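Hey,
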Amino acid sequence: MDRFDYIVIGGGSAGSAVAGRLAEDGTRRVCLLEAGGSNNNLLVKTPGFMPFLLKNSNYRYETVPQKGLNGRIGYQPRGKGLGGSSAINAMVYIRGNRWDYDNWAALGCTGWAYDDVLPWFRKAEANERGADDFHGAGGPLFVSDQKWANPTSEAFVESAAQLQLPRNGDFNGERQEGFGLYQVTQRQGERWSASRAYVEPLRGSANLDIRTGTVVEKLVIAQGRVTGVAIRCGSKREVVHASGGVILSAGAFNSPQVLMLSGIGPAEHLKEHGIEVMLDKPAVGSNLQDHIDYVSGWATESTVPIGDSLAGTVRMAKAIIEHRRKRTGIMTTPYAEAGGFWTVMPDAPAPDVQWHFVPAVLEDHGREKVKGHGFSLHACVLRPESRGTVRLNSGDATAAPRIDPNFLEDERDMAVLRGGVRLSHRIVDAPPLTGYGPRDRHPINLDDDDELDQLVRSRADTVYHPVGTCRMGGDEAAVVDPRLKARGLEGLWIADASVMPRIVSGNTNAPSIMIGERCADFIKASSV
């Protein structure tokens, strides 16, 4: 029972897609290993309960002290359980910019230009608007317009239009520039995670063995080939074997961690932890990129935004009842309801800042309780120049990895972020948002670079998009080749955000699912 054709490590966005696609035609036996639980509960399925997921289904990782953030320790929430981060995220469906993928191809990732990847985005998608040149309607991943949006989110889009910033009804269509409401990975008012899309339809199938609560300790390697996985479930240790190979889909933090625990990575670092070096691969755990993000916040006397007050509590209580009965109303909110893409630097090849408008006040990733009502506006640097690392803290597979995004190490990132924050304030200073009487929660002289830089360094952090730590490339130094096969080992593929050579200009969930779709097809083609 412990011998399979393929083993998939990690049931997150990409891993769910790989496992589901490999098992769906009934010709392969697939084992899906996931350290967390099933995530098949009310909190996960109800979009409006997203803030409560900070304490559930979440690894709650932290960074090392960040020099660029005044020595602060950053917060890195990552999804734990089936669906991975797609089970705890804001459900925003964004693919990135055409330029991103064309640049991947130019960097040596043959077959990953925009026109190459678009068919797999369409294959994955079931967009409620129907199929067209950019969208699919028959895939397992449901993509919907929001069933409800706060009036302040609509006002944000209109305020942007007052500044001649165009509306955009489809950020994944012909052009990315502009502002509008986001489409979300929901179906009939419920969160539609990658697990619900790809794994749950096959639950009970003889071809897919789903093992939750299972810690992967290391890959089993024999004569240069990955033949299985050493796992622990409770106090029980065992090895599961794969005749066809193993697909590592544990994410930008945990995929390099599994590789290093298995003796694959920077040799000197592995020796420091007493790990036998199976393959000296310095690129493992390097090239970490993430979207550095600053959240501006405004308080309002108006109780229209979501907030902590008697009126707000009563409204949310009614909304919970409505959602349980009809799957409509406030509890369908992704919180990041509106946003946009724009260019603030003259030499940018594509929009360099993304905004997420939230009709509630956010402090410290929502972990700090804020009384009253208001709204927040994220501005993130889409293509940061700073690079960080993921390393081991110990040889214990259950220990958190050592995460160093090296935020704002490159001054070019601060220049972009300055422009993004200033444009955030210009939008909020335009009608109709001004009609809500917004009061800046962190007022400074925005024209003073030094003052703005100090504010940014004291409050900025991730917007939850780590990538790049097992980069794909045409060069021998890359961790995987353009067909996602590990370089230097047989029987191993890597499929998740860690393989991105450069971060995409947008949210990373949809691209991770696309990578999973492609990996499954690469494996099918190689086994014919």
